[in-house]
Amino acid sequence: MAGAPAKADEPQPHPAKEQLPNISYCITSPPPWPEAILLGFQHYLVMLGTTVIIPSSLVPQMGGGNEEKAKVIQTLLFVAGLNTLLQSLFGTRLPAVIGGSYTFVPTTISIILAGRFSDTTTDPVERFKRIMRAIQGSLIVASTLQIVLGFSGLWRNVTRFLSPLSVVPLVSLVGFGLYEFGFPGVAKCVEIGLPQLILLVFVSQYMPHVIKSGRHVFDRFAVIFTVAIVWIYAHLLTVGGAYNGKAPKTQTSCRTDRAGLIDAAPWIRIPYPFQWGAPSFDAGEAFAMMMASFVALVESTGAFIAVSRYASATPMPPSILSRGVGWQGVAILVSGLFGTVNGSSVSVENAGLLALTRVGSRRVVQISAGFMIFFSILGKFGAVFASIPAPIIAALYCLFFAYVGACLISAVLKQTCGL
């Protein structure tokens, strides 16, 4: 009698993919509420840099004054809070902050310098509104690129072919490519930028090994400690007359009373769509903004991968990444509707903050979005924090962009070389 056929081998489960070790809180494990609130406020402080720097450089070129600049910063902050909530709830659901992007700045400047806005006889505020409406129209059209590529699944078909050999250069270039906003920004006011950089490295990297309290205080809240100390130091230099008689650029970069935001910001103001009027559309400007949107799409793909790594998540499926891109297109659409003078993408500096704190909780980023919305409505209070000198923020960039640039290099070396 023939023996019974051999039992088929049972299917084995998929092997768990490597996650980043030594993460204190991953996506679904939120820290205690007091700690989560402080960490969320820290994310809010970090994203303020881009939120303030971009309008501060663009609005004066458009003809706007301090009042218009304060309103644009409020609007950009409000929209960043909304988009961060949308991305964390419906997009990739990663702890990614969605804020302003330097990628859109060159295209925006080309619109500002367009010949049809060169009429110098009009009121500067009216010229500002005309240019803002043109930027709104181009952003609304440009948002369709990411919406279509993301929600249709076309970007999923592209990201399916991303291998470690291609992902590592992508993520590294996302981080290292933004260094022009790091050390050059510190050099604009060395007397406060360099102390901030040295203090940040000392508190976050050295102090935890000297004072071993069992609680992650220095490495987790290094940004709050160091920014507060150097901000007070910069204010003492300002009131002490250290910058009296200096060049205007030096005073703008170093003084704590030259932002002009606290006096110009309203006490309470809720941004709303089409607050600058009906958008205007131009085919050439819309096409140029679509190219900027595509660059932001590639940059955000690398930033999403870095965020998933530092949040101790398994590598994202291409479908989830494509869905996140679609919701980022929605973020650019919202930016165009509200009039933020800038498009939206993943905040690279906040991805670096995840690496510094080793807290990748989704709840922390959602709390930071609450801070963005709260301080954008209460304009005077938000303007106080928005007046932090830019070299202090640039010093933070120097460390955070390095974290993002080195995100996947260690993982690849471990897999390929056993290091």
Provide a quick synopsis of the model.
Helices cover 65% and strands 1% of the residues. With 419 residues, it is mostly helical.
How is this structure best described in words?
The structure is a single chain. The protein is an all-alpha fold and 419 residues long. Helices cover 65% and strands 1% of the residues. The chain contains 18 helices and 2 strands. It has a two-stranded antiparallel sheet. Helix 2 runs antiparallel to helix 13 and helix 12 runs parallel beside helix 14. The chain is globular and about 65 Å long. 50% of the residues are buried. The model has no long low-confidence stretch (mean pLDDT 85).
- Average per-residue pLDDT, rounded, comes to 85
Structural class: mainly alpha
Low-confidence stretches: none
Got a strand count? 2
Taken as a percent bin, the fraction of beta residues is under 5%
* Percent range of helical residues: 55-70%
Strand order of the largest sheet: 1-2
- H and E order: HHEHHHHHHHHHHHEHHHHH
Cα Rg = 23 Å
Straight-line distance between termini: 57 Å
* Basic shape: globular
Biggest sheet details: 2 strands, antiparallel
Count of helical stretches:
18
Task: Describe the secondary-structure layout.
Layout lengths: L32 H30 L3 H24 L8 E3 L4 H8 L11 H28 L2 H6 L4 H13 L6 H5 L2 H21 L11 H18 L8 H7 L6 H4 L18 H28 L7 H21 L5 E3 L1 H10 L4 H16 L1 H8 L3 H16 L3 H9 L2
Antiparallel strand pairs: 1-2
Helix pairs in contact: 1-2, 1-3, 1-14, 1-15, 1-17, 2-13, 2-15, 3-12, 4-12, 4-13, 6-12, 6-17, 8-9, 8-17, 12-14, 14-17, 15-16
